[in-house]
Design a protein that fits this description.
The protein is α+β, with helices and mostly antiparallel strands and 348 residues long. The protein has one domain: Nucleoside Triphosphate Pyrophosphohydrolase (Alpha-Beta Complex), CATH 3.90.79.10. Helices cover 27% and strands 23% of the residues. The chain is built from nine helices and 14 strands. A five-stranded mixed β-sheet has the order 4-1-8-7-10, covered by helices on one side. Strands 11-12-13-14 form a four-stranded antiparallel β-sheet. The longest helix has 15 residues. It comes from Calycina marina.
Length: 348
Amino acid sequence: MAPPALQKQYMSSGTKPKKEVGVPRPSSSILLISPANQILLLHRVRTSSSFPSAHVFPGGNLSASQDGEIATADDPRRHIDGPAYRIGAIRECFEESGILLAKKNDGSDSLLDIPEVVRERGRKDIHEGKIKFLDWVMSQGGVLDTEALLPFTRWVTPTNIPRRFTTQMYIYFLPLTQKTAQNISTESVIPVPTSDGGLEHTAALFATCRDWLTQASNNKIILFPPQFYLMFLLAPFLNVSSDKILSTEELQSQRDKVIEFLEGDGDGKGVKWADKAMSPVGVMMRKRDGKNVLGLEKPGAELQESGRSGDEKYVVLVNFKKEGPRDLEVRLRKDVLEEERAYITAKL
């Protein structure tokens, strides 16, 4: 039986492409953290052209008409965090989930609260291009909270995959709304996330990182390697349990640990998480079980001379099936290589 297309594409990503390499389209996504330190995932429709049936972070392609100037394909700024990426991330999050990351323009530091009917009409009109996103937000008395977006890796699609993207990932912490919170507004009203009516997603739901990872590991949902890997990194810090309600201080402490983590580089190579760029490359197919091992250390073809790099510490293990990635794991690279050497030696 021929291997699934994804397996052939990813596992040959370290070789020279046989066809003309596609230009990566700029896009951005948000790891949106709830007041309970859960993370939002959207369930894409089966007919989606990107990540069909998968659970994904809110986000999508940038729009020059909505998000402002986008650097050209040969401009290095195309792969660097900037205003268009931030505006696009917030716009896509609003269109896809109904959650608007904008503050009141009265200096109160509170998230903008918009009546549901007005909000839903705005989502539809912005998605259809009937109104400019920034103009609509201003008309509602708001300003986008772009400064609160925390850059958290960039992902460049390997050259052997036809549809390529250069995706800026961000983390955004929704306000802790408990009355005991200090220096955090208690007036913010955060709407329950909703799907976009089935245009691109069928559901929008907050759950803990560990819950999402467990569901993916048990093949109950489809996660692609970037989403699985990033939640794997956050899970030790955003350690929320359904059995215990954490205090505001405990929730804030978890967030502080995430911010401290972002100041590091993870693998000792000196590239902080905000600047890490990753383009998954096939390292090997394990002989013991046929699992594909993806390395994350390469920054992508367009960033080879940039001085940026990915993560040399971890690899992603995955079985590529017809329906998508399955049986995902994130493991230490050295452990996986040592296990493979030991397995091969034992077979000799």
